[in-house]
Amino acid sequence: MKTKQLENSDLFITPVGFGAWAIGGAGWEFAWGEQDDKASIAAIHRALELGVNWIDTAAVYAMGHSEEVVARALKTWPGKRPYVFTKCVLRWDERGQVRHVLSADSIQRECEDSLRRLREVGARHGRSPGQVAIAWTLRHPAVTGAIVGARSARQVEEIMAGADFPLTPREIVDIEGEQ
User: Fold this and answer.
1) I need a labelling partner for 162 at 20 to 30 A (CA). Which of 2, 7, 15, 137 fits?
2) What confidence tens digit (pLDDT) does each residue in 23-76 have?
3) How far apart are the first and last CA of the chain?
4) Structure letter (DSSP) for residue 90
5) The domain containing residue 85 runs over which residues?
6) Model confidence pLDDT, tens digit, residues 65-115
């Protein structure tokens, strides 16, 4: 399948991606109805077999369950790793009602929750998402340095450890997907 450059990034994506909204199942405000996880995983695998190289998901899809299904599908996928795009701002409450929450705290929680569900690469090495982000950024030859903010000495120590964290080619593929 042909790809197109995504805006001014270095990502090249297929014209059609796999949308994971419907695979989350029932029990939330915008649910599409019951969905079998095994069938969802098979659908993701089939899309990838057909050449799709990106998956769209979000923390709000089935209150996180969609991301969990995507993670399970990618764990058993033997081929090239797709890009996984997620988003934030829509949060759910204990009754499953969705609302807009656009705050720094909410965005940080959503990103952390998404990374946990998507089984971020750093977990394999006991590394934080911040350390993986620094390692990934610094591995690019065009990057001279990375500027990061920290609010405590502990954060500085944690983030700086990412500068000496070598990513393997396979881990870079896991993070970026393969073209």
Assistant:
1) 7
2) 877 776 666 778 788 888 888 899 998 888 988 888 777 777 888 889 999 989
3) 11
4) E
5) 1-119
6) 888 889 999 989 999 999 988 877 667 667 766 777 777 777 777 777 767
The phi, psi pair for 159, rounded to 5°, reads -65, -45
Say if residues 43 and 62 touch (Cβ distance below 8 Å): no
Structure-block tokens of residue 82? 């797709």
> Do 10 and 91 sit in the same domain of this protein?
yes
Residues 98 and 155 reside in one and the same domain: no
DSSP bridge partners of 98: 92
pLDDT at 136: 80
Alpha carbon distance 61, 71 (integer Å): 14
* Cβ atoms < 10 Å from Cβ of 95: 7
Tokens at 152, concatenated: 């405590």
